[in-house]
Amino acid sequence: MIDEIREKIAQELERLAHELNVAIPQAIQHAVENGDLRESADYNSALERQRFVQARIQHLSHRMAELSRLTLTELPRDRVGFGSRVTVLDLDSGEEATYTMVSGDDIDFDAGHISIASPIGRALLDREVGEEVMVQLPRAECRLRVLGLTTLPQMVGSDGKKKA
After folding, report:
1. Structural domain for 147, as ranges
2. pTM of the predicted model, to two decimals?
């Protein structure tokens, strides 16, 4: 999972670097060629996009540095943590759900990902199988019981590869 996230970030960084170094300078040059820059929407738009891309690159570079410092030995093996796949029971509705705990940048709702910074993610963090939590959601409270847990270290073999 960590390698997949690193690869995803690296691909986005590559795309953004190309945009910053090729596409945006071309847009700025095109706007300059069209005349008065004080009232040029194209010029202002290109500069705004340039600032956004620079900020996104900085954010992704920071995330990549965080991931490179992260080791499996630092992740919990018996409680919910980053990368854990956790199955919960909603004690009010009786419905079960399975989530994979990820950072906000890596969410894929269709794959059942949930951010560790979300209300449910924060409530489940560091919980063990059998524990119950109360989660304050925007429209209601819900009570969840942890039914099952597979941590990231458990998903990965001793050689660092995913288990079959």
Report:
1. 74-155
2. 0.60
